[in-house]
Amino acid sequence: MMTGVGKYLPLLASSLRRKRLRTFFTIASIVVAFLLFGLAESMRFALRSGVEVAGADRLLTMHKVSFTQLLPASYETRIKAVDGVAAITPQTWFGAWFQDERNQVPTFPTKPEAFLRIYPEISVPEAEQQAWIADRGGILVGRSIADLFGWQVGDTVPLKSAIWRREDGSDSWDVTVRGIFDVPHGGDTRQILMHQDYFEEAKQQAKGLIGWYVIRVDDVDHAQSIARQIDAMFANSPAETKTSSERAMAQSFVNQIGNIGAILSAIVGAVFFTMLLVTANTMAQSVRERTNELGVLKTLGFSNRGVLGLVLGESVLVTTLGGFTGMLLAWWLGIQFEPVLDQYLPGFRVPGSAFAQAFGIMASLGVIAGAVPAWQAMRLRIVDALRQE
Amino acid sequence: MTIAAAFNQFVTVTGMNLRNLPSRLGTSLVAVVGIGGVVAVLVSLLSMGEGFRAALDLSGREDVAMILRGGSADELSSSITREEFNVVALAPGIARDARGPIVSGELYTIVDLPMRSTGTAANVPFRGVGDRAMELRPGFRIVAGRMFLRGRDEVIVGRGVFAQFGNVDLGREVKWGSQTWRVVGVFEAGGSVSESEVWTDAVVLRGVYRRGNTVQIVRAQLESAGAIARVKANLEHDPRVNVTVRSERAFYADQSRILLALIKYVGTTLAVLMGVGAVFAALNTMYSAVSSRTREIATLRALGFGAAPVVTSVLLEAAMLGLLGGVIGGLLVYLVLNGYQASTLNWGSFSQLTFAFTVTPQLLVTGLGYSLILGLVGGLLPGLRAARMPVTAGLREL
Amino acid sequence: MSAPPAAADASRPIVRIRDLVKEYRRGAEVVRVLDGLSLDIAQADFVALMGPSGSGKSTLLNLIGGLDRPTSGSLEVEGLRVDQLTDASLTRWRADHVGFIFQMYNLLPVLTAERNVELPLLLTNLGREQRMRRVAAALALVDLTHRAKHRPRELSGGQEQRVGIARAIVTDPTLLLCDEPTGDLDRKSGDEVLTLLEALNDEYGKTIIMVTHDPHAAERAHRVIHLDKGLLSEEHR
After folding, report:
1. Which of A169, B106, B200, B314 is least enclosed by beta carbons within 10 angstroms?
2. Is A11–C111 a contact, with Cβ atoms under 8 angstroms apart?
3. Which residues contact B360 (CB under 8 A, 6 or more apart)?
4. How far apart are alpha carbons B1 and B306 in whole angstroms?
5. If 0-12 CB within 10 Å is exposed, 13-18 middle and 19+ buried, where does residue A15 land?
6. How far apart are CA B296 and CA B314, in angstroms?
7. Radius of gyration of chain B measured on its C-alpha atoms
8. How confident is the model at residue C114 (pLDDT cuts 50, 70, 90)?
9. Has residue A98 got a pLDDT over 90?
10. Any bridge partners for residue B179, and if so which?
11. CA dist list (Å): B87 to A278, B233, B242
């Protein structure tokens, strides 16, 4: 029977042509439903991939009490000595703004060579890398920031800090753009990296203190035990540490935004329910109008179950046409908007798994919507049906 | 045709339509549910926004100034020395009473507590307050336990924190780092953002976190709402200090900016998309309504009824269906969601903000308005078709 | 199409009806439409069933075609007890052996003439090419090849009925059952249709049972049977 299904397609398709407007509106509302579904899945995927992009082989060591507390710079050598630690750099929240207080830019004093080893996914031309390492007053700027302010390599820019004061009393931290970086496989380019040495020497307060450490471990499988080792090293000291993987931190951040997953599912669920009603109503009307025709089909020899199949097939055809169109639209929109959203929500696109899910939803919604009318069509008595106009 | 005649026609046609309605119940229900769903989602999202705004607005008074380090956008990164604090406290425009200037030097840091809902840790603001801090929060009241004693490792928690997070029951000890604190009380503060915070004595906090003699922000009661300009002009040009001065209201408005923009952006997109879907459902309903009455409409037209009463009656029916959907959707959201407490990440302060879904009358009106528009759009084309239908074609159906 | 055109042979009845009873429930009432009817119809015969409304002639046609079940009695077609078949078997039997022609044509308005005629063939195992060949042959027989791609609303009443006939014969059925085939047609179109039916009977040996109230149509039949109140009342040739 399945092999022969194709031959019924013209019959199914033609019944959709019966009331063109009605079919169009029904399919249109299904398109909208699946468009929303596709967008919701894209959002879910983007939030998840933000987490996935974060390295599992990178650890962050911060002050146990609060990430707002500073750690001694002296911890660096001790952590580096731990077995399995491949590279380490300190970082601090600089709190930079440029020209206008409202232009806050995430800026981190760090150790350039270690930094580049720890974040291999960053792409910077070799020459620029060397230039940055060589110039103490140099900064490495992410592509989004560079584009935003129109900075070129070689520009000297005055940064201000909302937190840090300079020993020499001046307000301005003059730095030179030595390199611009991209993250080809997705990641944050809204950052500026400056030299830790330059920062340490020029700052007035908190000498010998840094914000947190970023550590790269040799083997992902050892990450947990290395983290524990580090924390054990500084337990009961005045500045206790808490070390966790970058990925775990990203995940907990997403968790804090709230149960977005549940909200998205609720909305999409409500939309699909409405769409189900629309389709069911359309199918019910369609069958009601065709009582006579269905009777004729039965006289021609279509079995009761055959007629049931025809009605269900029509219903599934409607939901599938709408569903595919909606998903394609969502996919296309994802491609259009991904670059725009990249800053806040990298990786905004419809994942493959969503298509598979969508297909299942299309089929089941088609069957559910058409179930009652199909049942009625099946049970139709030929003699009664033919009597109708 | 006179107005009276037109009106009579309109009433007749409408009456006919309405009497006919029960036979089209199924189809009509679809339009109602479709539009109702859109309104429900819209009102839910907007009420979330209202909840944020309420939580932050309630905190933002025009006659209280927030003084931070120059260039700081948030309390976390600000830092003010003792000398600067002294200068600030004496600025003209700041209210004074017998005890001196009404100011509170405060410290602000972030700690973590497990969320009751997920069990995972989330950021919570931990504020060290001066002894006049309570005067600067209207509606401040201890609702359980007692106020912390100065100089002791005691904390009080806001009502919102108490509801959303674990480990903060009265009498419980909570450990952050190597320091243990005892929870001695729960406070409310007029529903403001303070209820999302944990408080202790600024002096103790300073000691534990080795902040020397600095504070992070200064809150000051102003002589009047208008005084903000004077204080701002004064302090921002004073060479002895490096500060920015804003009213509390402006400060919190800024903080909620990102969150509210997100809600507005997402909410609008969603409402428009869903609205389009609902319009298609409504169009279906109305076209089917019109086609089921082709015969009657044709008869009326043959009898001399004009096109306008026909169109108007269709529009009216569509509008009513839309409004019904709007009422049901709005009411549902009001009954289920209004006052429901939740929390989310406040981008401005990088910590959890507790808020309550707030369904205001304006919101319901907005929802109703939108449902009306959706209904009308769904009824327009079918109405026009009903009016332009060739009379003979319709009569042939007889 | 099957050959050979054999003349009506009364000794080999293709339809054998004995004591056929059909009752309907109308609320609390029970109405007896057929009251113990017995009838034989020979192969390749052309029979007209006439009678006043309510006489049961359409009911009889429906029963013979397997569209409905008798309350009691026996109904045999080509030796097969049709009244004893299960629903599924009855449906299959009907698809293979019966062709219907209706007063209101009952074509699917959304399909072209071609596709309408193809419908019964979808239930067979024939491939697309074979199906289309049969459809072409059927349409040629009713002289509507040039209208194959037209929809019913583009055809005249007479043309629609001829498409209906093409659909009825495309499976090469044993019986052709017609319910008031000329009822909705003007004189000229009606004549065309009747001529076609005669040809099918004469040249192709199809057994035709036609319900009609039009004496003009009945003239074309070889045998006219009158029904009244569920029983045979008279018969003539």
Report:
1. A169
2. yes
3. B47, B50
4. 9
5. buried
6. 13
7. 30
8. very high
9. no
10. B176
11. 69, 14, 11
The verdict on A255 touching B (C-beta cutoff 8 Å) is yes
Q: Is chain A touching chain C, with at least 3 CB–CB pairs below 8 Å? A: yes
Q: Are B329 and B371 in contact (CB under 8 A)?
A: yes
Residue numbers of A between 106 and 125 with CB closer than 8 Å to B: none
H or E segment to which residue C118 belongs:
helix C113-118
Distance CA C216, CA C193 (A): 12
Torsion of the alpha carbons at A51, A57, A62 and A66, rounded to the nearest 10: 30
The Cα B84–Cα B241 span in angstroms is: 5
Tokens 């009307």, residue located = A285
CA distances (Å), A197 to each of A109, A110, A137, B153, C210, in order?
Answer: 8, 8, 9, 38, 106
Mean pLDDT, rounded, for B206-219: 85
d(CA A162, CA C98): 92
pLDDT at A346: 65
Residues 6 or more apart whose CB falls under 8 angstroms from that of B323 comprise B368, B371, B372, B375
Written as one letter, the residue type at B86 is: N
Question: Does A300 sit within 8 Å of C123, measured CB to CB?
Answer: yes
What whole-number distance in Å separates Cα of residue C108 and Cα of residue A290? 9
Nearest-CB residue to A301 (from C68, C108, C120):
C120
Q: What is the pLDDT of residues B9-66, one digit of tens each?
A: 777 777 777 777 776 788 888 889 889 988 998 898 888 888 887 777 766 788 899 9
Q: Using N-to-C axis directions, what is the helix angle for C157-169 and C187-204, rounded to 10°?
A: 20
User: Given pLDDT bands bounded at 50, 70 and 90, which one contains residue B304?
Assistant: confident
Question: Using the 8-state DSSP alphabet, how is residue B117 labeled?
Answer: T
Share above pLDDT 70 across residues of chain B, in percent, rounded to a whole number: 95
Question: How many Cβ atoms from other residues are within 10 Å of residue B12's Cβ?
Answer: 14
Compute the average pLDDT of residues A63-91: 88
Residues near B329 by Cβ (< 8 Å), separated by ≥ 6? B35, B36, B37, B38, B39, B40, B43, B367, B371
pLDDT at B325 over 90: yes
Distance of CA C114 to the CA centre of its chain: 20
Asked if the Cβ–Cβ distance from A382 to C67 is below 8 Å, we say yes
Minimal C-alpha gap between A243 and chain B (Å): 13
Phi/psi for C125 (5° steps) reads -95, 10
Residues 6+ apart with CB under 8 A from A263: none
Nearest of C38, C77, C33 to residue C173 by alpha carbon: C77
Determine the Cα–Cα distance for residues B129 and B126; give it in Å rounded to an integer. Answer: 10
Q: What's the CA gap between B323 and B311, in Å, rounded? A: 18
Which of A7, A300, A386 is closest, CB to CB, to C95?
A300
Mean pLDDT of C184-192: 89
With 0-12 CB in 10 A as exposed, 13-18 as middle and 19+ as buried, what is B373? middle
DSSP class per residue in B201-238: EHHHHHHHTT-TT-BSEEEEEBSSTTHHHHHHHHHHT-
Q: What is the mean pLDDT of chain A?
A: 86
Residue type present at position B231? V
CA distance B218 to A112: 37
